Amino acid sequence: MMKRLLAVFIARNKEFLRDRAALGWNLLFPVLIVAGFAFAFSGEPAPLYKVGVAGEVPPSGFFTTPHVQFIAVDDLAAAITKVERHRLDLLVDIGGARYWVNDESPRGPLLERLLLGSDNAALRKQAVSGRQIRYVDWVLPGVLGMNIMFSALYGVGFVIVRYRKNGVLKRLKATPLSAIEFLAAQIVSRLWLIVAVVVVVFFGTHLFVDFAMYGNYLTLFLAFAMGGICMISMGLVIAARIASEEFAEGMLNLISWPMMFLSGVWFSLEGTHPLVQKLAMIFPLTHMIDAARAVMLDGASLAAIAPQLGVLLAMTAGFLAIGAWLFRWE
Amino acid sequence: MTALIEVENLVKHYQGVRAVDGISFTIPRGACIGLLGPNGAGKTTTVEMLEGIKVPTSGSIRYQGEPLGAKFRREAGIMFQSTALQEFITVRETLRMFRSLYDHGVALDELIDACALHSFLDRDTRKLSGGQRQRLLLAIALVNDPQVVFLDEPTTGLDPQARRMLWQLVRDIRRRGKTVLLTTHYMEEAYELCDEIIIMDHGRIIAQGSPDELLARHFHDVVLQLPKADFTAGVLPPLTVLDCGDSVEILTSAVTETVQQLLASGVSLDRLRIRARTLDDLFLELTGKELRT
């Protein structure tokens, strides 16, 4: 028995070690993950408290308290919303001699005491209320976005490569079906499925998790739909020529995993290395999640998320053009 | 018969290998042409160029006098050697999908009757037997009511019953006036179905004509077969005696004289069999290889 077991063990080891792509991926992938995280969080540790300041930040007193990040605020209304949602612990308007605090926030009253105890007693309190944006509220748009990404990339990219490998594409090539018609059918089919799944998951989750949704449902739908089209188009670029499922899987992993970690699915990119934040901008997932979060957590309007939608539209056009140009039936 | 497809000086190179090396032939309208050759002879490459799947390195293919184009794709029916179908869909759904790709075609009911698909119409395409799968692939090839049908080794791997059923379907296609180009490993199949055969080797055409014409051109003898144990004569000059394992084959154009010679040598003729030369013999003679190697 041991002899047979050993024979199979050796054969399997040889098979694995001689498959350069699989071996490379297995060695490289964990190293890339660790290196990526180490680089992303290589800066100063995140501050414990966040205080918004409208007007010039005074260089003394409360405003020099350690472990508090003082953030210059231009849009007072948006900053007040952040206090309501617990995303700013305190907001001070220097010119208007007033401050906003959310008494429901555990950190706000503590900072309020520090503020008033540092020669700022003349400031008028503006109480706001609003429930905290919990992690689940924050992460949900990211998780939905990630689901869309995997469904789009693998559902289109991987499937087309399999069709090419097993001859389905060859058979279709022999019909009057044009490449554009075929690709359009793939996009529409996958988009419909993605949208249907997102709607079901969104409302299904809402039945047992009371997550925040301050914006318009149609605007959110548009953000997810445009992100979906963009990532399906990205999948078409991957699938344009590859005929090996193993290679396609490697390529899809290479794209999807960095996107999953660096597009703000699980954690905010605020506080990460500036290069990471810039790198994240090349991923469509970043723009889709930003737009969805803005709609869900801040009640952003269509006009407010227009920049993210514009980037997604431009990326989609680019991916479609490259994908259609590169595409080969065989 | 007028030419439906004209092939002129067709060449295909693959990284320094001339898979197809300057072949020319015509396919008359309504004919069934068989393309034969050992593995690597270049027949599948040739067929795939004719089907518009592969682009020739040089040479020309004309369909009804014009280069292959949209008209050809509308009017050609193709059954590849191996085709995967989309999974998790039924035979009926597959037919509907392919039918929708063409503006003109046959009614599905007619096709279902013609290819005997009734008994497994609602079955997932992954769960078909070899014969059922080939009948479905043939039906897909016919879904657009094609003028020309390409059948690339349609019966490979089928049992004799399924093979004969497919032959009958091909005869029905021919009866409807369609032109057929068939590649096959089975000489019997080529003999049964084809008006004309083209034998290829090393990318070139080495013989072309009707099966009977080719046999008459190359052979003037018949084969006497005897179990080796019965062939006690050893040699039989000036005739050629082939050692075929458990039997011997004697090639002769004068059967009566050879039989008398065998009797004179004391050979028992109780188990003697006489057969005419076949396309298998022709193939072996021309290519020096067994067809299925």
Word description of this protein:
- The complex is a heterodimer of chains A (330) and B (293).
- With 330 residues, chain A is of the alpha/beta class.
- In chain A, 63% of the residues lie in helices and 8% in strands.
- Chain A folds into two domains: 49-128, no CATH class; 135-326, no CATH class.
- Chain A has twelve helices and five strands.
- Chain A has helices spanning 2-18, 20-40, 76-84, 108-116, 135-166, 168-173, 179-208, 217-239, 245-262, 274-280, 284-298, 306-326, and strands at 49-54, 68-73, 90-93, 98-102, 124-128.
- The model of chain B has no long low-confidence stretch (mean pLDDT 86).
- Chain B is globular and about 70 Å long.
- Chain B has helices at residues 43-50, 70-75, 91-100, 108-114, 130-142, 160-175, 187-193, 211-218, 255-264, 279-287; strands at 3-14, 17-28, 32-36, 58-63, 66-67, 76-79, 148-152, 179-183, 196-201, 204-209, 222-227, 240-244, 247-252, 273-276.
- With 293 residues, chain B is of the alpha/beta class.
- Chain B has two domains: 3-216, 3-Layer(aba) Sandwich (Rossmann fold), CATH 3.40.50; 220-276, Alpha-Beta Plaits, CATH 3.30.70.
- In chain B, 32% of the residues lie in helices and 29% in strands.
- In chain B, strands 6-7-8-3-9-10 form a six-stranded mixed β-sheet, with helices on both faces. In chain B, strands 2-1-4-5 form a four-stranded antiparallel β-sheet, covered by helices on one side. In chain B, strands 12-13-11-14 form a four-stranded antiparallel β-sheet, with no helix packed on it.
- The A-B interface holds A 163, 166-168, 170-177, 330 and B 51-53, 70, 73-74, 76, 78, 80, 82-86, 98, 101-103, 140, 144.
What's the structural blueprint in terms of helices and strands?
The complex is a heterodimer of chains A (330) and B (293).
Chain A: H1 2-18, H2 20-40, E1 49-54, E2 68-73, H3 76-84, E3 90-93, E4 98-102, H4 108-116, E5 124-128, H5 135-166, H6 168-173, H7 179-208, H8 217-239, H9 245-262, H10 274-280, H11 284-298, H12 306-326
Parallel strand pairs in A: 1-2, 1-3, 4-5
Antiparallel strand pairs in A: 3-4
Helix pairs in contact in A: 2-9, 5-7, 5-8, 5-9, 5-11, 7-8, 8-11, 8-12, 11-12
Chain B: E1 3-14, E2 17-28, E3 32-36, H1 43-50, E4 58-63, E5 66-67, H2 70-75, E6 76-79, H3 91-100, H4 108-114, H5 130-142, E7 148-152, H6 160-175, E8 179-183, H7 187-193, E9 196-201, E10 204-209, H8 211-218, E11 222-227, E12 240-244, E13 247-252, H9 255-264, E14 273-276, H10 279-287
Parallel strand pairs in B: 3-8, 3-9, 6-7, 7-8
Antiparallel strand pairs in B: 1-2, 1-4, 4-5, 9-10, 11-13, 11-14, 12-13
